[in-house]
Specification:
The complex is a heterodimer of chains A (275) and B (274). Chain A is an alpha/beta fold and 275 residues long. Helix content of chain A is 37%, strand content 23%. The chains are: A alpha/beta (275), B mainly alpha (274).
Chain lengths: 275, 274
């Protein structure tokens, strides 16, 4: 495969926190092709969020190489190649829905008219018409997360990084947003890396599922999800869906039980960056 | 709104009643602790208010006119001092939030600056700024600023650091400059903290201005009036009380102005408004 057919290429990526006391991820090799939706799944402490942040140049790897769109991750970040969605919507309370979505566009120096036009398109895409002038605290959790997704997609990033985006939502909202994400993904034709705790969510959404194990974070195996596209609600009832869920679960089991250490990945990141 | 008004006047009437009840009871039993109560030590409230509408001196203007002018004069000093102190305090907070080293190095001195009594600093400020073509009252503003900047610095620092770590990561992913991060994220996140500081500072600036007038020998403000009526306390206690009343009202006016500005500026979930 030639370099330009790969959106993300990780080579031998290792990240140690502290003075090498905690190895968050070790020797990760992974390639993500254009238009893929790749899920990272694993128990707490397996380094999946760390890996996502390394791809997004929010954390520097201790070793190894991260190439995004044929350039180092750092350059890709400066070129605004990343859209990011966290578990919390991370909206600005003091901005309306429309202004939250337009925030990255302000950073890119778009003029007011172009911004307004794009924000309108994004509002339509995530079906939040009528809520433009609401403030975040007036929205439900699911709506807030849709604003967050619209904001991440507003500037057409080459790569969408999602860190357990639906983890804080109830099951029904989560399934609805899964469908919406797939619809948006099909329409935009973008590439997504998706971190999740949920096996069924990973299998349902992804083209490939990367299973990780903890201490140190490593890739246990990669499962190709050969379910037909587009996915629909009934996909969850296919026998093949259950086979794949079982396969992923089996790989997770091989990775070993969750470690007893109390520190979560987020705590390690916070400790590292002194935030 | 009606309820609020009722509460306000209810509390006012209650305090008034307590004052007069204490005065009556203490005078009746001849209470001497903590101080003997009589018309000199604790005048009737209606006497204090009545004094406002007496001539300030024989054939002179009413006391309330004199104090009104003095209050405006002090308000000008305090307002300039507040702007000065808030600007310096904010700028200091912004610098310190970007450097742990500076923060550790300078914070002890910033704290120490507030342990030096304002009365010790004020004469020096007057000497430093005197005879430079600046208006006399400007040194009073600087003294007021000295009291004002501290809460603003502390709360600016705290407020700028209150930005959500994930929001900072988001800004980083947009390759935003520190300047952009400051104005688009950190400062808006800090606003509730800033306004909490402004509320403290607004009233502190009045105190600073009144105290600053004494060593600056400025007669036109409330500080001058307090000094003056203090000398005549024996003959007319209510005059000094009335002056204090006006000073308190000026402080409340400043506070209310800050609260009003906060309502206009801070858009936040109701439970997050400081």
């Amino acid at each position: 495969m030639s370099e330009n057919e790969v959106v993300v290429s990780l080579r031998n990526v290792t990240k140690e926190f502290g003075k090498g006391d905690v190895v968050a991820v070790r020797s990760i090799d992974l390639e993500v092709r254009p238009g893929e939706l790749v899920s990272l799944i694993g128990p707490s402490g397996c380094g999946k969020s760390t890996l996502l942040r390394i791809v997004g140049d929010l954390i520097e790897p201790s070793e190894g190489e991260v190439i995004v769109n044929g350039k180092p991750a750092h350059q890709a970040r400066l070129d605004r190649d990343y859209g990011i969605v966290f578990q919390d919507a991370v909206l600005y309370d003091w901005r309306t829905v429309a202004k939250n979505i337009g925030l990255p566009l302000e950073m890119l120096g778009w003029d007011r008219r172009r911004r307004a036009e794009r924000v309108r398109e994004m509002i339509e895409l995530v079906e939040l018409g009528g809520f433009e002038d609401h403030h975040p605290w007036q929205l439900s959790g699911g709506m807030q997360q849709r604003v967050s997704i619209a904001r991440a997609l507003s500037f057409d990033p080459a790569l969408l990084l999602m860190d357990e985006p639906f983890g804080a939502l109830d099951e029904m909202t989560r399934e609805r947003l899964n469908m919406e994400l797939l619809r948006i993904w099909e329409r935009s034709g973008g590439t997504i890396i998706f971190v999740t705790h949920s096996i069924s969510e990973a299998v349902f959404l992804s083209t490939r599922v990367v299973v990780m194990s903890p201490r140190p974070g490593q890739i246990t195996g990669i499962v190709d999800i050969d379910l037909p596209q587009p996915r629909e609600a009934a996909t969850r009832e296919y026998p093949r869906f259950f086979e794949l869920v079982t396969e992923v679960r089996e790989l997770l089991r091989q990775g070993g039980p969750e470690p007893p250490e109390p520190a979560t990945e987020e705590e390690l990141i916070v400790a590292e960056e002194g935030l | 709104m009606l309820r609020r008004g009722l509460v306000f006047f209810g509390v006012l009437a209650g305090l008034w009643g307590l004052w007069e009840a204490y005065k009556n009871a203490a005078e009746a039993v001849g209470l001497t602790w903590p101080f003997p109560v009589n018309d000199r030590t604790l005048p009737h409230i209606h006497d204090i208010i009545g004094q406002l509408f007496e001539p300030s001196r024989r054939n002179g203007p009413l006391l309330i006119e004199v104090l009104g002018d003095a209050a405006l004069f002090t308000a000008k000093e305090a307002f300039v001092g507040f702007l000065l102190g808030a600007s310096v305090g904010f700028a200091l907070g912004v610098v310190l939030v970007h450097s742990n080293l500076l923060q550790r190095g300078f914070m002890p001195y910033i704290v120490a600056s507030q342990t030096v009594p304002i009365l010790a600093v004020a004469p020096m400020v007057v000497v430093w700024l005197g005879g430079r073509g600046l208006p006399d009252w400007f040194s009073v503003s600087v003294i007021a600023a000295y009291l004002t900047f501290f809460p603003v610095t502390i709360n600016t620092l705290r407020g700028l650091q209150s930005a959500d770590p994930q929001a900072l990561e988001l800004m980083r992913s947009y390759a935003a400059s520190s300047w952009r991060i400051l104005w688009k994220l950190r400062v808006p996140a800090a606003l509730p903290y800033l306004f909490a500081a402004f509320k403290v500072s607004a009233t502190a600036s009045i105190v600073g201005a009144i105290i600053g007038e004494l060593p600056a020998s400025i007669q036109g403000g409330l500080g001058g009036a307090i000094l003056n009526f203090n000398q005549y306390y024996a003959s007319s206690p209510p005059s000094l009380w009335a002056t204090n009343l006006i000073a308190a009202m000026l402080g409340i006016a400043f506070f209310v102005a800050v609260v009003g500005a906060e309502r206009l500026v801070v858009r936040r979930a109701p439970e997050h408004v400081a």
